[in-house]
Amino acid sequence: MANKIRFVTLGNGSRVAWDEFASWNYSKQAGKIWGGRNKGSTHSEETRKKMREAIRPDVTAETKKKISETLKGGTCYIHTAEHLKKISETHKGKVTSEETKKKLSEAQKGKVISEETKKKMSKAAKGKPKPWLKGKVASEETRKKISEANKGRVFSAKHRKKLSKALKGRVFSEEWKRKLSEAQINRWQIKYDLLY
Fold first, then answer.
1. Spatial distance between the Cα atoms of 135 and 142, rounded to a whole number of angstroms
2. Most buried of 54, 96, 125, 175 (most Cβ within 10 A)?
3. With contact defined as beta carbons under 8 Å apart, do 25 and 3 qualify?
4. Measured between alpha carbons, how far is residue 46 from residues 7, 23, 71, 195 in Å?
5. Three-class SS state of 38
6. Is residue 85 part of a domain?
7. Residue 9 structural domain
8. Which tens digits make up the pLDDT trace of 121-179?
9. Residue 53 forms part of a structural domain
10. Is there a domain that residue 7 lies in?
11. How many whole angstroms from its chain centre is CA 64?
12. Domain count for the chain
Protein backbone atom coordinates (compact mmCIF):
# COMPACT_ATOMS: atom_id res chain seq x y z
CA MET A 1 0.00 0.00 0.00
CA ALA A 2 1.43 3.37 -1.07
CA ASN A 3 2.22 5.91 1.60
CA LYS A 4 -0.48 8.52 2.00
CA ILE A 5 0.75 12.01 1.03
CA ARG A 6 0.22 14.55 3.78
CA PHE A 7 -0.58 18.18 3.00
CA VAL A 8 -0.37 21.43 4.95
CA THR A 9 -2.91 24.21 4.37
CA LEU A 10 -1.21 27.60 4.14
CA GLY A 11 -2.52 30.97 5.29
CA ASN A 12 -3.63 31.95 1.77
CA GLY A 13 -5.74 28.77 1.46
CA SER A 14 -3.36 26.86 -0.82
CA ARG A 15 -1.99 23.43 0.09
CA VAL A 16 1.57 22.14 -0.04
CA ALA A 17 2.98 18.63 0.40
CA TRP A 18 4.38 17.93 3.88
CA ASP A 19 7.79 16.87 2.49
CA GLU A 20 8.22 20.24 0.81
CA PHE A 21 6.87 22.12 3.85
CA ALA A 22 9.26 20.24 6.18
CA SER A 23 12.26 21.34 4.05
CA TRP A 24 11.52 25.02 4.80
CA ASN A 25 13.06 26.79 7.79
CA TYR A 26 10.81 27.71 10.71
CA SER A 27 10.51 31.39 9.71
CA LYS A 28 9.25 30.46 6.25
CA GLN A 29 6.85 27.88 7.69
CA ALA A 30 5.39 30.39 10.15
CA GLY A 31 5.19 33.09 7.46
CA LYS A 32 3.34 30.82 5.05
CA ILE A 33 0.97 29.54 7.73
CA TRP A 34 0.09 32.89 9.29
CA GLY A 35 1.26 35.38 6.67
CA GLY A 36 -1.96 35.45 4.67
CA ARG A 37 -4.28 35.73 7.65
CA ASN A 38 -5.90 38.85 8.96
CA LYS A 39 -3.75 40.80 11.40
CA GLY A 40 -5.20 41.22 14.87
CA SER A 41 -7.66 38.34 14.46
CA THR A 42 -8.19 35.95 17.37
CA HIS A 43 -8.16 32.22 16.65
CA SER A 44 -10.24 29.72 18.55
CA GLU A 45 -8.52 27.04 20.63
CA GLU A 46 -9.53 24.45 18.03
CA THR A 47 -7.95 26.48 15.20
CA ARG A 48 -4.76 26.99 17.21
CA LYS A 49 -4.54 23.26 17.79
CA LYS A 50 -4.88 22.60 14.04
CA MET A 51 -2.20 25.19 13.29
CA ARG A 52 0.19 23.63 15.80
CA GLU A 53 -0.41 20.18 14.33
CA ALA A 54 0.07 21.53 10.78
CA ILE A 55 3.46 22.99 11.63
CA ARG A 56 4.81 20.13 13.71
CA PRO A 57 2.62 17.03 13.29
CA ASP A 58 5.55 14.75 14.22
CA VAL A 59 6.35 16.45 17.57
CA THR A 60 5.63 14.17 20.52
CA ALA A 61 3.50 15.15 23.50
CA GLU A 62 6.61 14.97 25.70
CA THR A 63 8.50 17.44 23.47
CA LYS A 64 5.50 19.77 23.41
CA LYS A 65 5.42 19.68 27.20
CA LYS A 66 9.13 20.57 27.38
CA ILE A 67 8.64 23.50 24.98
CA SER A 68 5.66 24.70 27.02
CA GLU A 69 7.63 24.52 30.28
CA THR A 70 10.56 26.40 28.70
CA LEU A 71 8.36 29.25 27.48
CA LYS A 72 6.26 29.62 30.65
CA GLY A 73 6.42 33.04 32.28
CA GLY A 74 7.44 34.74 29.03
CA THR A 75 11.08 33.70 29.36
CA CYS A 76 12.95 32.88 26.18
CA TYR A 77 15.02 29.78 25.59
CA ILE A 78 18.67 30.42 26.46
CA HIS A 79 21.12 28.81 24.04
CA THR A 80 24.25 27.16 25.33
CA ALA A 81 27.66 28.51 24.27
CA GLU A 82 28.10 25.44 22.04
CA HIS A 83 24.73 26.00 20.36
CA LEU A 84 25.48 29.70 19.78
CA LYS A 85 28.81 28.73 18.20
CA LYS A 86 27.02 26.33 15.83
CA ILE A 87 24.53 29.05 14.85
CA SER A 88 27.42 31.46 14.25
CA GLU A 89 29.29 28.93 12.06
CA THR A 90 26.12 28.25 10.04
CA HIS A 91 25.63 31.93 9.24
CA LYS A 92 29.26 32.70 8.39
CA GLY A 93 29.76 33.72 4.79
CA LYS A 94 26.05 34.22 4.17
CA VAL A 95 25.27 37.33 2.13
CA THR A 96 21.85 38.96 2.39
CA SER A 97 20.52 39.99 -1.01
CA GLU A 98 19.41 43.57 -1.67
CA GLU A 99 15.83 42.34 -2.16
CA THR A 100 15.84 40.66 1.27
CA LYS A 101 17.35 43.77 2.87
CA LYS A 102 14.58 45.86 1.31
CA LYS A 103 11.90 43.48 2.61
CA LEU A 104 13.38 43.55 6.11
CA SER A 105 13.53 47.33 6.00
CA GLU A 106 9.90 47.60 4.87
CA ALA A 107 8.79 45.19 7.60
CA GLN A 108 10.37 47.41 10.29
CA LYS A 109 8.91 50.68 9.00
CA GLY A 110 6.19 52.18 11.14
CA LYS A 111 7.01 50.04 14.17
CA VAL A 112 6.93 52.01 17.41
CA ILE A 113 9.30 50.89 20.15
CA SER A 114 8.27 51.76 23.68
CA GLU A 115 10.61 53.69 26.00
CA GLU A 116 10.84 50.65 28.28
CA THR A 117 11.95 48.45 25.36
CA LYS A 118 14.48 51.08 24.26
CA LYS A 119 15.98 51.12 27.76
CA LYS A 120 16.22 47.32 27.79
CA MET A 121 17.90 47.30 24.35
CA SER A 122 20.34 50.01 25.46
CA LYS A 123 21.19 48.13 28.66
CA ALA A 124 21.72 44.86 26.75
CA ALA A 125 24.05 46.52 24.21
CA LYS A 126 26.18 48.44 26.71
CA GLY A 127 29.79 47.32 26.93
CA LYS A 128 29.46 44.93 23.99
CA PRO A 129 31.62 45.24 20.86
CA LYS A 130 29.89 46.41 17.68
CA PRO A 131 31.16 44.13 14.88
CA TRP A 132 29.31 46.07 12.17
CA LEU A 133 31.59 49.08 12.91
CA LYS A 134 34.84 47.09 12.92
CA GLY A 135 37.32 48.46 10.37
CA LYS A 136 34.93 51.20 9.21
CA VAL A 137 36.13 54.79 8.99
CA ALA A 138 33.61 57.63 9.09
CA SER A 139 33.65 59.87 6.01
CA GLU A 140 34.39 63.59 6.26
CA GLU A 141 30.70 64.34 5.68
CA THR A 142 29.68 62.02 8.55
CA ARG A 143 32.30 63.54 10.85
CA LYS A 144 31.03 67.00 10.00
CA LYS A 145 27.45 65.97 10.82
CA ILE A 146 28.55 64.49 14.18
CA SER A 147 30.51 67.66 14.92
CA GLU A 148 27.55 69.92 14.10
CA ALA A 149 25.19 67.79 16.19
CA ASN A 150 27.48 68.05 19.24
CA LYS A 151 28.17 71.78 19.00
CA GLY A 152 26.74 73.70 21.92
CA ARG A 153 25.79 70.49 23.70
CA VAL A 154 25.73 70.91 27.47
CA PHE A 155 26.13 67.87 29.70
CA SER A 156 24.24 67.70 32.97
CA ALA A 157 26.12 67.46 36.28
CA LYS A 158 24.96 63.84 36.60
CA HIS A 159 26.32 63.00 33.12
CA ARG A 160 29.66 64.73 33.81
CA LYS A 161 29.97 62.73 37.03
CA LYS A 162 29.40 59.49 35.09
CA LEU A 163 32.05 60.44 32.51
CA SER A 164 34.52 61.30 35.26
CA LYS A 165 33.90 57.98 37.01
CA ALA A 166 34.30 56.05 33.75
CA LEU A 167 37.67 57.69 32.98
CA LYS A 168 39.15 57.33 36.47
CA GLY A 169 42.10 54.97 36.59
CA ARG A 170 42.35 54.83 32.81
CA VAL A 171 45.91 54.81 31.50
CA PHE A 172 46.56 56.57 28.19
CA SER A 173 49.49 55.77 25.92
CA GLU A 174 52.06 58.44 25.03
CA GLU A 175 50.93 58.35 21.41
CA TRP A 176 47.30 58.94 22.44
CA LYS A 177 48.34 61.87 24.66
CA ARG A 178 50.33 63.39 21.78
CA LYS A 179 47.38 63.10 19.39
CA LEU A 180 45.03 64.64 21.96
CA SER A 181 47.44 67.51 22.55
CA GLU A 182 47.77 68.19 18.81
CA ALA A 183 43.99 68.13 18.38
CA GLN A 184 43.53 70.67 21.20
CA ILE A 185 46.22 72.95 19.76
CA ASN A 186 44.52 72.81 16.33
CA ARG A 187 41.15 73.68 17.88
CA TRP A 188 42.56 76.72 19.65
CA GLN A 189 44.41 77.79 16.49
CA ILE A 190 41.16 77.70 14.50
CA LYS A 191 39.36 79.75 17.20
CA TYR A 192 42.24 82.26 17.25
CA ASP A 193 42.18 82.62 13.44
CA LEU A 194 38.44 83.25 13.52
CA LEU A 195 38.69 85.88 16.24
CA TYR A 196 41.75 87.73 14.98
1. 16
2. 54
3. no
4. 19, 26, 21, 78
5. coil
6. no
7. 1-37+44-63
8. 888 888 777 777 777 777 888 888 888 888 888 888 898 898 888 888 888 888 888 88
9. yes
10. yes
11. 27
12. 1
